Fold this sequence. Notes:
- The chain has eight helices and two strands; from the N terminus they run αββααααααα.
- It has helices at residues 5-12, 34-46, 57-66, 70-78, 83-93, 99-111, 117-130, 140-147; strands at 27-28, 31-32.
- Strands 1-2 form a two-stranded antiparallel sheet.
- The radius of gyration is 16 Å and the shape is globular.
Amino acid sequence: MSVSSAATKQLFAPDLTRDFxxxxxxxxxxxxxxxxxxxxxxxxxAGTQGEYNFNCPLDEILFEFTGIDADEFKAYxxxxxxxxxxxxxVQGKTAHLTEEQILSWAYENRVARPEDDEDRAMxxxxxxxxxxNATHIETWxxxxxxxxxxx
Length: 151
């Protein structure tokens, strides 16, 4: 007996009004950011996204690198695709990228820090708000993890 696409979508959709999406550092294949984008996309489709936005600037980093259109991604996820199916689809769309390119991109994302005075000021304000005693927080991924209580 097969499960309908809508039921499958509901089965996999996180409730981001109560929980957080996966860390931006979480990976699927070698792609970081991807698991978080999947969580937010599924939640948007299910109406449980809370304060989270699909295709935000962080998501755009993934879409720009892979060349995947956000609406095309959303349509594929809406079919009720599993993480493994989504990864296979993304890998098919990015077959032109080498493993070295993907790993290098993922590394750059993981270690990205604020680059100018405006970004550093915003970063520090957020760090002081969400984790004032965590002076070891230096990257954007760490800041999101701290804000969402993972570190």
